[in-house]
Amino acid sequence: MTTEVEYLDITRLHDEELYKAFLSRYGVDFKACMQCATCVSVCPLSDVCPGMPRLDMLLVGLGLFEEVARRLSPWICDQCMECSRHCPRKANPAKVMAALREYLTARYDVTGILMRVLKSKARKETRR
Amino acid sequence: MTKVGVYICTCSAVRDVIDVDRLAEEVKKIEGVEVVKFIRSCYELDEIIKDLQEKRVERVVIAGCSPRYVLEIARERITSAVPDISPLWIEVAPIREHAAWAFRDDKQRAFEAALTYIKAYVARVKAAPHIPKEREVERVRRVLIIGGGIAGLTAAVDVADMGIEAVVVEKRPYVGGKVVQLARYFPKLCPPYCGIEFILGRLRARANPLIKIYTNAQVLEISGSPGRFKARIRINPRYVDPERCTACGKCSEVCPAEAPNEFDFGLSKRKAIYLPHELAWPYAHVVDPNACLEIKNPGSCGKCLEVCSTGAINLKEQPREVEVEAASVIVATGWEPYDATRLEHLGYGKYPGVVTNVQMERILAPNGPTKGELLVPGTGKKPKKIVFIQCAGQRDENHLPYCSAICCAATLKQAITIAERNPDVQIYIFYIDIRAFGLYELFYKEASKYPNIFFIRGRAWRVEQDPATGELVVHAEDTILGRKVVARADMVVLAVGMVPSLRYEPPAWYKSGVGRSWEQELLKIPRHQYFVESDYICFPMETKRTGVYACGCAMWPMDVQTAVSTAHGAAMRATSIVLGKARTEYSYLTDPNLITIDTIKCTQCKRCTEECPFDVYSFDERGYPKPDPLKCRRCGICVGACPAVALSLPYHNTDLVMSMIKSVEIKSDKTQIIVFACLNDAYPSLDIALRKGGRMPPEVELVIPVPCIGSVNMRWIADTLSLGIDGILLLGCRSGEAEAKQQCHFIRGPDLERTRIENLRETLQKMMIEPERVKLVEVTLEDYNKVIDVIKDFVDFIKKIGLNPMKQFAGGGYFGGGYTF
């Protein structure tokens, strides 16, 4: 059908499996997002990636993980936590951004090496 | 010869500017003034009362501060002490505000102004008629309540609690209205039957002999006045005697005829003889005459008659009429869902999977067509995905231009109910704004945290069916993403709005009225949309008909708790007609200020009946307008409207106003202005402005308070100009009859006055007077920083035009001035 090309089919693109996995791991609090865009206003990187992290919250909330994967924001997020501090509904956007990076890392990391590096003890120590 | 006493207040505000001793000397020279005394404050009334009791004076003018502060108190205290005096024989001349403060830089002008005001009020008090302090009104101890929904029943219980009889007229065969059709209340998610059971407990006949309920009934006509309305009620046959019916249900079992069940909004069928619902009150069966075979065709069926063991069924019952007298009426007619078949683009009626939110309530209700199980109508399958479409018709000029207030919370409630009962069903809510006002915001947050409830901000504009899969496809634009989206669902719920029942079925009583029927008024005022109300912020329960009060969704779309609150309010107002004063803006039930008609002057032009905002007028047997003083709110709009100046209110009429104006000394070399100010807004605004240090232009001679700017008659204006006054400024409230920003408490005073001034132009031109000498300016109470400038601008403008050519006739006895009155 032509509609699928033109329109974003939010029910077909809803990745139920991933969405449920995401919920079971990170809870439902992020769904309280009401798209007020306080997070975008306070995010120092929203000039680089417009709509960050509000749009990511929306897309994850709808379970549209394919759409999120196209975005730059999960990769550049600094985890400065400004968004979570200011979120009026305590939806914790920074946590979602971290979760997204984790998911995307796993998604593109076919061999699993990168994941190991990321999670390695040595790296954690160097960050400190 | 009436003896007038003038009591000059010598408080420092007055004394600092005005030489009161010289003023007293001058006042003594006024014709009719017998006593001039000084009082230390305007509230020092003992001296006045003594003089009145000892018959030294008959009428009183207190020269002091604004009448707004003193007048009512002085009238109340003096008439209590001296019972035979008319309250209108006591007046207050505002020499503090309008003389001492208005001209505080110019002592000579202040002195002159004080004298002018005292002269004007002495003239006014001499012209004032005698009225009693109160008058007796006959009141029936009964309140009529139209509509037996949650609001009507709550009002009935309240009224009965105050020991007053309540008569409820309900058009359906059971009470409870729309509430009993709901699955749950938001935000507590509790069953509506629970609250209804409490009310029913209080209603049951033996427990409450003061409440009488007519079901299957409708009000045909309401006549009479507040205190004693007469309502004609038709009681349609139920065909079952509720006192004998045991609701055993055998008749329904044998009945062969079926009809769509309106209780389930057409989602199921019921028999022609049926019990409306489980908690129906009266708890008895009812026969649908349109479906019953025996009624349509006698002798063809009659099975129910055979099985009924108590002989309760009588299929030959006829409608009957009763007449009820009631002191006041409460309109609790409620709402109907918007007709979704008009929403063709959303597929209602085309696809069985598209339902309205009220139908969804029935689907979720345990006594609904599916016993509370979530099934798609038509297919009977369990849905996987459901789309809710908010604002299905609301906020849309083509359908309902207003927000229906409850649909957002109702949808959240339905979504939560579905989500918690069916965790595998995905719910998509398309909205423009989620209007979860007040604490409902917490409910919204709770709903948004359900994993299977999704919110999409965008107005769904089209629903179609995918021919391949049979799914319903909802088209919209996600305004947050800025992309067009589609959602596929098995079921679509349209959140249709509330429409007042009065719009779908305007009842007969609604169409009554001589000048402007209620229905006609609502058609002309788009803001109202057939909702019943008048001044919806300050006096929400009051309607435009005195003695008729509104509550529930007849006022505006509201949730159950607001409906119950307004019902308490309406019951309070309705019982005040029986027990209390029943105040309206300027009147109350026992108000002695009665409008009178001079039938010698009256030309039967019917202007008064057209312009009266409160439907006060009917016609007597000779065709003269006949006012109903109990409905009248003393706005005086008819006094202002009458082209023949035949109408007068005791406290506002031609004699009073013209005597004040005529007392002004016409000066041939000086510009003179008279200001009429609305008593409720412009006059207090001026008081505040002068207190704050505003300086009145010296050209202003008099500021005359009037109950509404629409009560200023054009004949007064023409005559004032012909006397030689150079300009007349009218300060009224903000107009805009058809809009929400209108401020006039009498709905259209400034609008009417503007039209009249427009019509006066020609007359003035014939009199060789520039029509621009009359101007209406809209001033609200908060404009006290601007009102002096408004007057100054007008004075400057009049100075540019020049002196009134009529001045040379010195008192204008020629062109109507002294002639008419």
Task: Write a brief structural summary.
The complex is a heterodimer of chains A (128) and B (821). Chain A is mainly alpha-helical and 128 residues long. Chain A is built from ten helices and one strand, in the order H-E-H-H-H-H-H-H-H-H-H.
Please explain how this structure is put together.
The complex is a heterodimer of chains A (128) and B (821). By secondary structure, chain A is an all-alpha fold. Chain A has one domain (2-127): Fumarate Reductase Iron-sulfur Protein, Chain B, domain 2 (Orthogonal Bundle), CATH 1.10.1060. Chain A is 57% helix and 2% strand. Chain A is built from 10 helices and 1 strand. The longest helix of chain A has 16 residues, at 93-108. The radius of gyration of chain A is 15 Å and the shape is globular. Chain A starts with a helix and ends with a helix. Chain B is α/β, with parallel strands linked by helices and 821 residues long. Chain B has 6 domains: 1-134, Rossmann fold, CATH 3.40.50; 136-236 and 319-338 and 499-590, FAD/NAD(P)-binding domain, CATH 3.50.50; 250-318, no CATH class; 339-496, 3-Layer(bba) Sandwich (FAD/NAD(P)-binding domain); 596-627, no CATH class; 653-821, Rossmann fold. Chain B is built from 25 helices and 34 strands. Chain B has a 5-stranded parallel beta sheet with strand order 7-6-5-15-26, covered by helices on one side. In chain B, helix 5 packs antiparallel against helix 6 (107-127), helix 7 packs parallel to helix 8 and helix 13 (407-421) runs parallel beside helix 14 (440-448). The longest helix of chain B has 21 residues, at 107-127. Chain B is elongated and about 95 Å long. The model of chain B is unreliable at 812-821 (pLDDT under 50). The chains are: A mainly alpha (128), B alpha/beta (821). Chains A and B meet through strand 1, helix 2 and helix 4 of A and helix 14, strand 20, strand 22 and strand 23 of B.
